[in-house]
Amino acid sequence: MAEGLMTIRFGTGEEQATVLATGPWVVADQLLAMEEWQADFTPGTQTVSRTMVWVRLPGLPLEYWDRAAIFEIVAAAGRPVELDGVSNEWRRIGYARVRVEVDAVTRI
Asked: SS3 string of 50-105?
């Protein structure tokens, strides 16, 4: 495809969903941004405008320790996607980590 772009074909839709849901990925020390194929996509004409980042909330007070409150806090950075496994299972109260989709064009 165009410079800096590649196409990845998955064996099943389940594999594709897993890969897209569990990023971001780092390959050769570079962040690999992945998006589902869009109709009428023309290689080399679009730029990456969104990315996934992990937002850490160390020292989070106990009164804010529920999914809705945590998502509301990180919504200032972007669209909350999921809590990491440790935070979701309340294995380490006081420290939360949330995967957030951010608009790379307006945030950076």
From this structure: EEEEEEEEECCCHHHCCHHHHHHHHCCCCEEEEECHHHHCCCCCCEEEEEEEEEHH
> pLDDT per residue over 73-102, tens digit each?
999 999 998 887 666 666 677 778 888 888
What residues form DSSP beta bridges with 25? 32
Note whether 88 and 104 are within 8 A (CB): no
Distances in Å between the alpha carbon of 75 and those of 8, 20, 39, 82?
31, 21, 29, 12
Query: Residue ranges of the domains in the chain?
Result: 1-37, 45-108
Distance CA 31, CA 52 (A): 10
The answer to whether 57 and 96 are in contact (CB under 8 A) is yes
Please state, as a whole number, how many other Cβ atoms lie within 10 Å of the Cβ of residue 28.
Answer: 5
Task: State pLDDT tens for residues 28-76.
Answer: 767 677 777 778 777 766 666 777 788 888 888 888 888 899 899 999 9
Q: Using the structure block, give the residue that is written with the tokens 């990845």.
A: 8
